[in-house]
Amino acid sequence: MTTDRPDQPSFAATDSGTHGETGPHGPPRPRTGVWLLGARGSVGTTVTAGWAAVTAGLHPPTGMVTETAPFAGCGLPPLADLVIGGHDTSGCPLPKRAEALVTGGVLPHGLPAAVHAELAAVDAAIRPGGPRPGEDRTDEEMIDSFAADLAAFTTDHGLDRTVVVNVATTEPVPAPGDDRLPPSSLYAAAALRAGCPYVNFTPSAGLRHPALADAVAHRGLPHAGRDGKTGQTLLRSVLAPMFLHRALTVRAWSGTNLLGGGDGAALADPAAAAAKNAGKARVLADTLGSVPEGRVHIDDVPSLGDWKTAWDHIAFEGFLGSRMVLQTIWQGCDSALAAPLVLDLARLVAAAHATGISGPLPELGFFFKDPDPGAPSDLAEQWRALLAFADRLRGES
């Protein structure tokens, strides 16, 4: 893909030692790295393909809140100045992975060919992840290796900073007494060691593993949330406050998720499903004061691929004990819902780091099922907190 646009992204897998593009009338533009954990997965591939397509003007930034008017002038890194790399245990090249997503209806026909050069450049910046089957490295050795990859990426591309975003498949909750860090926490520890801000878009432990508590407190890096809010829980964060504010008693709230792809297979594991469901229950508990009767079931349906169906059945009680029911059905492509939010979060956290903001960012609770402590659960309140955060960035940028 070629273009004359002045904001054409600098993909530059081979521009070692440079510091952004030099404009005709000024110094080089600073650039920001986005390091995806699970870079060759469905979400990671959609993030990269979508970023390339939007930056080149092939598609509008639908779903990206940071591209809307309230976020103008906040000091967010321009999409054209992002450089993407990552870790993955898969060896499937990004262009091939993108073609598979076209077959599954996730990416539009022709897009992988249009952004093939960009996909290939990012693929060249992806490093082997871990632990792999038969892994003989210690946790410390893997953390050192991952941190070295991050440092090299930042230095080789002349980046001002690199934001690490976990978009890997959900992992099971660590077993009690397990003295090894789970993969997500190995990567999170590496981000801390390399001085990189961190975002956890999955329900996995990441930075919230107890073994990392001291390191998180002492590193002074901005970090955000756990488990991106893209579908069923997004709707719950709208509906639960509605029942609360209208003084309607919720008697039961049950749900079912049908999904395929890597997440469907991973969440067939009860331990992994438990991690996912904890965030879904939290929004109800925080909003209503307790969790109503009912459970959320997650069923693996491989034929659905990257698409999912979420069904909720809400039994509630109104005036004079009148019993009523609300049912909702959400059908969508999880990767397409997640990808714009990943780009939003990377830009917001990068801007926070640039202005010296550190620690957890409950102001970004709008994006998460399990946000940082202090975040409201009501989506409208979360939106107001996010706008206030944008104002803060605007004032400090």
UniProtKB/TrEMBL annotation:
One Gene Ontology biological process: inositol biosynthetic process
User: Which residue intervals make up region (Disordered)?
Assistant: 1-32
State a single Pfam family of this protein.
Answer: Inos-1-P_synth
Myo-inositol-1-phosphate synthase GAPDH-like domain location is 231-335
Which chain regions cross the lipid bilayer? none
Recorded hits in InterPro entries, A to Z, give: Myo-inos-1-P_Synthase, Myo-inos-1-P_Synthase_GAPDH, NAD(P)-bd_dom_sf
Q: Name one GO molecular function term.
A: inositol-3-phosphate synthase activity
Q: Coiled-coil ranges per the record?
A: none
Q: Which family does it belong to?
A: Belongs to the myo-inositol 1-phosphate synthase family.
Q: Which PANTHER family does the entry link to?
A: MYO-INOSITOL-1 PHOSPHATE SYNTHASE
Name this polypeptide is given: Myo-inositol-1-phosphate synthase
